[in-house]
């Protein structure tokens, strides 16, 4: 129950949240390939060598399967009963089948003509089966394999699913594992469990996994509690966090603080003037997060051209994940108005960011965090030994490193320190959990 003067927490899910709305972040799924996009009307999306628009998915439930029709329109796919095994004509073996390229009567020009007429992929596959002279002589297993291969090539079946930690983790690990330090989704699940991530906690996270770990923590906490993200460089990278599509209420408990100011905060020499030395122009950070509309447009055009040029050479190549917009306050140059208005807006945002940094510094200075998560490309030992001072006694911490040598070194150091405390008759406040 909320006390007087307290801000209300995040509201429970709305009954319509299971339906896709304009502006939502969704994940497109085709076979075992995923792609995160933002739903926008009349926005051209390229996925697995197919281009289409997302207008028709608005209003449908998550998990609905669509088929790409002529003109790039998505239509809900109707379920069709598969023929029973009794009606199939199959051979006993494939020993007499010769792959000479002459068994298919339909040529590429015929197939192209069928596509131009708007014939669905399902009907094209059926015609390929009927015009194959060797299909009925193949074994049942070979027939199923042939049908599956042709469906993958000619049927554009796409399922729209709601973003989640598991789906986004699988997506990044399959396509761009280097961006998440080769972290598997089961490893991320262990980190969330061992770190005791739950609603109402005050957590500290230092990660260089494109914001995937941060997004997973925010999803599990459900908008209750606070998270302080420590970042290296000019600003935090949250490209994966944006793919979750969290409501604005979740962002109220998210703070950020530069990693190069941690030592001064521990030494007591930190002051508000130090933040003025931070880079004023956050364009580079916005670009890395995918917030620049100009880059998004150029990437989309490049993606389309590459897909068309490589369709015949790389049929197995997966689609690059689309850059999604993250900052809802960002406006295109044509909408900014005059240069003076743009400068004022930029100064306002910088002042707001500076205020959030001071709030994060105040939270860190309390040194009573409920947990710490470290998952970065840097050596974990100096990071952990520095950041543990901000964690309250008897609170868990989790350290992830893709190199076992660095993890082993840290674990042996913590074990040695624990042994010294035990020998001296003192109680060790922190319990290490190294993944």
Structural account:
It comes from Acinonyx jubatus. Its main location: nucleus. One of its GO terms (cellular component) is tRNA (m1A) methyltransferase complex. This protein is α/β, with parallel strands linked by helices. Among the domains are: about 15-80 and about 105-160, Vcp-like ATPase, Chain A, domain 2; about 175-275 and about 355-435, Rossmann fold (3-Layer(aba) Sandwich). The strands form 3 sheets. The protein has a 6-stranded parallel sheet, sandwiched between helices. The protein is about 40% helix and about 15% strand.
Topology, please?
Layout: E1 25-30, E2 33-38, E3 44-47, E4 50-53, E5 65-68, E6 74-76, H1 108-116, H2 121-130, H3 140-154, E7 157-161, H4 165-175, H5 185-194, E8 202-207, H6 212-221, E9 226-231, H7 239-244, H8 248-251, E10 254-258, H9 262-267, H10 283-289, H11 293-309, H12 333-336, H13 339-365, E11 371-375, H14 380-387, E12 396-400, H15 404-423, E13 431-434
Parallel strand pairs: 8-9, 8-11, 9-10, 11-12, 12-13
Antiparallel strand pairs: 1-2, 1-7, 3-4, 5-6, 5-7
Helix pairs in contact: 2-3, 4-5
Protein name: tRNA (adenine(58)-N(1))-methyltransferase non-catalytic subunit TRM6
Organism: Acinonyx jubatus
Biased composition (Basic and acidic residues): 79-102, 292-317, 328-354
Keywords:
Rossmann fold, nucleus, TRM6, 38% helix, six-stranded parallel beta sheet, disordered N terminus, 13 strands, tRNA (adenine(58)-N(1))-methyltransferase non-catalytic subunit TRM6, five-stranded antiparallel beta sheet, 435 residues
